[in-house]
Amino acid sequence: MSPKTLSLLRTFAPLLGIAALAVVMLVVAPAVLSPFRLNSLGKYTCWAIAAVGIGLAWGRGGMLVLGQGVFFGLGGYSMAMHLKLEAAGPDGVPDFMLLYGDGTMPAFWEPFRSGPFTIFAILALPAIAATVLGWAIFKRRVKGAYFAILTQAMAVVFATLLVATIQETGGFNGLNQFTQFFGYNLYDPVNKQMVYSITVVLLIVCLLIVWQLYRSRFGELLVATRDAEERVRFLGHDPANIKLVAFVVAAMMASVGGAMFAPIAGIISPSDVDATASIFLIAGVALGGRALFLGPALGALTVGYGRTSLSEAFPNQWTYFLGAMFIVVILLLPRGVGDLPRLVRSALDRRTSA
Amino acid sequence: MLTEKQSTERFRPVLNSRARRATGTATALAAALILSSCGGSTAGEDGASGSGCVDTSGDSIKLGFLQSTSGVMSISEQTVRDSLSLAMEEINADGGIMGKQIEPVVEDGASDPAIFAEKIEKLLTADCVAAVFGGWTSASRKAMLPVVEANNGLLFYPVQYEGLEASENIYYTGATTNQQIIPAMEFLAAEGAKTLFLAGSDYVFPRTANKIIKQYAAELGIEIVGEEYVPLDDDNWTTQVAKIVAAKPDFVFNTINGSSNVGFIKAYYEQGLGPDTSPIISVSIAEEEAPAMGHPVTGQYAAWNYFESVDSAANSDFIAAFKDKYGAGRPTSDPMEAAYTSLYLYKNIVEKAGSFDVDEVNGASDGVSYDAPEGTVVIDGDNHHISKTALIGQINADNQFDVVFSSDGPIEPDPFLEGYDWWDPAAE
User: Given its phi and psi angles, is residue A92 left (phi above 0), alpha (psi -120 to 50 degrees) or beta?
Assistant: First the structure.
C-alpha cells in the first residue's frame, strides 16, 4: 500500500468502524438473537452511548468524570416519569404515589405528561446542570483528582436525594411498570425491537458527532488542553470553555443513554445511577481504550455483556472474575484492549528493524 | 502524557470534500439499515413471550433460584438460597415433584432491582423454568412484578413485606401487614403502651408500615411521639436516638432493615436507653441478625411468624436437616423458613393441579396446605398469600427468641387491609 492510501484509510477507518458496528447491531443482532438477548444488548447500548461521551471528556479532554450516573439519571428519570404518566393514563397519578403518600402529584411531574417536553428535558436538563457545574469548576481551574472527587460526590448526593424523596421519585425502588413508549405497547416484541433500533441509531449518531468533533479544530484544542493546559491559555484560548463544551456534550450523551435505559430495562432506580454505576461506566471506557475512537463504546458493550454472561455462568463467583479482568487489562494494557493492534504492530516493527 | 499524544496523530483533521462525501454515505447507510431492521421486525415474533416454553417431557423440571449473591443484600439472601437448596434436596430424594427431579437454575440478582428484572426475564424466557423462587427487598419484587406478569410466569417471594399488593403471578409466603405489623400493635396495646416512637429505614417497607401503624395507633389510643428515617445504607443514628431519649416512649417500633440496625442499636445503648426504659420491637431482626448487633440485645422484642424456638415436630426436623447440611452454628430464621415452605407449597399445588402450567397451577392453588415448621399454612387463592400465625418473641441471652405472645391460630392474609375499617389508604 502506498503511503497515500494508508493515510486515507486512517482517516476513514473510524467511519468503516461505525458502518461495521451498524451492520452488526442493526442487521445481524436482530436476526440471530432472541428478543430477550436483544433487549439485553439494548441495555449495553445505553451504557455505550454514555461511554462515548466519557471518551470525549476523559479520553480526549483528560477530565476523569466519575459522576456520569447523575446525567444518566437525569435522562433516565425524565423518561421514566413520562412513561409512568403514560401508564397512569390522562389525569392519572403514578401508582406509587398512592402507595407511599396521599396520592397528590408534585407539580414538577405535570409537564412530563407531554412527550415533546420530555425529549426537550432529556437534552436540556443535563446541559443546564453540566453548564452551571462545569462553569463553576473550570473557571476556578479545578482539575485532576479534585475534579474526579467532586463529580463522584455529585453521584453520591444524587442517589441519596433520590432515595430520600420516596414520594416524589419512588425512592429506593425507583420507577418501573411502564406499559407504553410514546403510544407503543412495550409488551409487544416488535415495539421492543423498535426501541432497541432507536437506541442503536442514537449510539451511531453520538459516534458521528464525536468523530466530527475529533476532526475539528475543537478536537485538536481539547487534546491540547488535556496535554498542556497552560500552553493553550498562553496561545490565547480559554481552556475553561473548551473543557466546558466537552463536559456538556458528555453529560447530554449520558442523559440520552439513560433515557433509553428506562424503557429497555423496564426500570430505573438509584442503583442504576449511583457512584457504583458511574464507576461501572468508567470501567467500560478504560477497558476499551479511552482515547481511541471506538474504544469507549466497544468497552461498554463488552463489560455489559461480560457482566451478564459471567454472572450466568458463575452466579456466585462472577464479581471476582470481573475484578480480575479489570486488573489484568489495567496492568497489561493501560490504554485499553483497543490498543492491542498498535502494540502488536510496534512489536512487529521492532522485530523487522532489528 | 507522551503516549496519549501519539494516539492523536490518527485523528489529524483532513477536511476535504472526500471526507464530507464519506460522512454523507455513512448517514445514508445508517438510514438504510434502520429501515431494513424495522421491516424485519414486523415478521412473526409472537412466540417470544409467554411461558409456553417450559419443557415437562423429561424426568426433570427446571426451577429458577434468584437471590443476590453479591452486593449488600447477599448476606441475607444467601440464607434463603441455602434453605431452598435444602428443600430441593429433600424433595428430590423423596421422588421429586410429580415424579420429576428439580433441576435448579441459579442466578445472582446482585442487590440491584434492574438486574433482578433482567435475570427473571432470562429465567422465564431463555431457561424456560416452571417457577422462580426469589427476591428479598420490596424493590426487587416490584422490579420483577411487571416481567413475571408480562411473561405469565410464577414467582414465589419468601419475605414479610408491606402488603397492598396481589399479583396473579406471585405467591407471597412471607407475612403481609395484618400478620405481623397489626398483631405487633395489638401486643403493644396489651402491654399497656401509651406512647410509641417510630424508627425506620427510608424506603417503601418502613414508610408503608408506619402509615399503617399511625392509623392503627390512633384507633388503639397510642400516641406517636416521633418518627425518624435514615437511608438504608446509613448507620449514623446519633441525632435520631437523641430524640428518642427526649421523647421517652413506652416502646420503639423499629422498621430499620439490614446493617443500619447496628448503628441504631449502638446509639440506643450508648445514650442510656435499654429494654427496661424504652424497649424496641423490631420486624427485621431475627436469629441471624441478633448476635451481629455489636451489643447484646437481650430483652428486646421482635415480631415474626417463625422462630427457631417454635416447638413442633416439623420444626425439629427442619432445624436438624439444616444444621446437618450447613453446620451446627447456623441459625434458622423466618425468611429461610418461608422460602423452604414455598418450595413445598409449590410441589403440593402442582401435584394437586396435575400440571406445571401456570394457569392450571393458579386454578388449583386455593386451599393447598403444608405442615410447615411454623405450623400448618394454607394458600388463599384470591390473593396468593398464606395464612400465618403471628408471634412476638423476646430475645434471650442465647440470641434465641422466647415466644411471649401468639395470635389465636393462623391469621387469614388481608394484604389490602379490607377487613380493617380504620384503614384509609388515601390518608397521609
Answer: beta
